Amino acid sequence: MDVKTVPKVQSETRTKGEKTRERLLDLAQEAVIRKGFGATSIEELVEAAGITKSGFFYHFKDKADLARQLVERYIDRNQTFLQDMARRSRELSDDPLHSFLIFLKFYAEAMDDLVDDHPGCMVATITFQDLAWDGATRAMTIDSVKTWRAFFLAWLQEISVAYPPKAKVELPAMADNLLVLTYGGMTLAKALQDTRAIGRQVLVFRETVRLCFQPS
Q: Residues of 196-207 as b/e, b for ≥16 C-beta within 10 angstroms?
């Protein structure tokens, strides 16, 4: 059926349903990060969302399906976040090094804003609570980390062609460093109650990149 021909009542119902599904996913993400997937029950999510249990099963087949959709949403949002920021940076400069430095500045600023809105790192949660998640969900998470790693590595390799590094540097390790700052920085930010902890570390990494590649 063409979207334009959907009756208004059905359209409104679908919109309300989507809002309920997003609300359940938001509640699940916060609960999972704070106390673990195994300790998060369907009953508590239903109560917090103010819906019936049948309402939950309208959106998710079971708890495993909730986990899969939760991780899929997390990955999709992160990918959009990354690609949009990279596109903006590339639009501001055609030079691979300069555009990457712009990207890192954007990235640092975004991290400062995100810490308050995130109870913790979903990747770390799934990785360290591996027995609570099924193999497919864990594999999705690992693949998403590898995708980020490949994205950063490709950009650094592009930079190294245009600007040979001044010192011996392992580009894969440099790409990993930004991941470490992101995932580990969330723990640091929460422990120190410092919302700018990740952003500052990213800016230090940015200066390292600049000094390593930029001509004197």
A: ebbbbbbbebbe
